[in-house]
Amino acid sequence: MRTAKILDGLSSSFQNKKNEARYVPLIFSLNIATLPTLCGFQLNSSNLKSNAHRAKAIVKHILANNYDLVILQEAWSIPIANYFQRMLSEKYLSSARGVGRSNCILMKGGVMVFSRYEIVDYYAASFPRHTCSEEWLGGKGPQMLKIKMNPDTFTTVINCHVHSDTAENGLCGESFLKRLSQLFCQGALSDIQRRDEQFAFLSKKMQRWAKLPPEGSSLIYGGTLLAGDFNIVLNSEKEVLTDKNILPGQHGLFSQIKFNRPLNYNAADTVTAGTYRSAPDKKPAAILDGIFQSKDSDQFEAKTRMIWLKDENGDDVTDHASIVAELRNGLFSAPSVPEVKVQQAEHSYTTPRPNVGLRLRLRKP
Predict the structure, then answer these.
(1) pLDDT tens for each residue of 102-130
(2) Taking the alpha carbons of 170, 171, 177, 182 in that order, is the dihedral positive or negative?
(3) How many angstroms separate the CA atoms of 167 and 172, rounded?
(4) What value, to the nearest 5°, has the Cα angle with vertex 136 and ends 307 and 226?
(5) CA 140, 132, 175 angle in degrees (round to 5)?
(6) Residue 33: in which H helix or E strand, if any?
(7) Tens digit of each residue's pLDDT (9 = 90 or more) over 3-54
(8) Cβ burial, residue 314 (10 Å; 0-12/13-18/19+)
């Protein structure tokens, strides 16, 4: 009897320690809307304050909330991308920026990831065929990272920003120039069809590359997180899983994920009715942004909520809400203290500190 009580006590103690050691990573995703500044003119200045002002507010929020993974879209302004790199490098072990070599105007792809965990493999590329107007200039494409979040497994994270329906109505106008640019950039495909191609591209990468262990590694695949600005209505699973004969790419991608809506979503609320609004005084129209987990990621559970970030005057810092995910019920390790590694699609380099670790080698699948 006494032996049984001792064993029960040891078992209970072990379970309590296991629960105490269980770490819950916090993931943050946001479209920061930092478009390039041309000849002193910010392209989205009509509805948002300056890039520099808003970037400071976003960085302040990130540092105050101790996120483990920061995922950004529309970081097209090179000075702003450099500012994020400089301000976050002390806290984050690794970072990845862009989907290729940037030019003097903008950072290609406009996507960035900052991680307190080690990135053990990385792939990035522009979508195979660009759409026209701003989409063509931005060179959109996904970042795909394999992140070591405990000693035995890796989690694949995909950061994406796909084509917007409204982009064709921007620089190219509504008439002949729009049609001409559409033919030049897309052939006969419409906005929706071209975006579906991009979803098909992501779907294939999620099925194949995402699950492969990093070269020379014994790490085991632990699931995929798909995050970003999807530019489709994500209010319900029915809307997302459209007819696969009409939009096979979209159906193929989202049939691989566990659909979730932010826990604080409320269609009747003036703040949490969606993650995008076209003007500061307008009610959010729909959920366009999200963090989703793959159906094969059974080692954790992603619970999300949306947060509209404000500056000190109560103004929006971007036209999108951020998405924050807690990875619950997983066996994740707490992040380690950093050395700073910066990776790009075509090369990588390391900012050294004492006892700098192994340089990551980038490879295409």
Answers:
(1) 766 788 889 999 999 999 999 998 888 66
(2) negative
(3) 9
(4) 40
(5) 150
(6) strand 26-34
(7) 555 445 544 444 444 444 589 999 999 999 998 776 666 666 656 888 899 9
(8) exposed
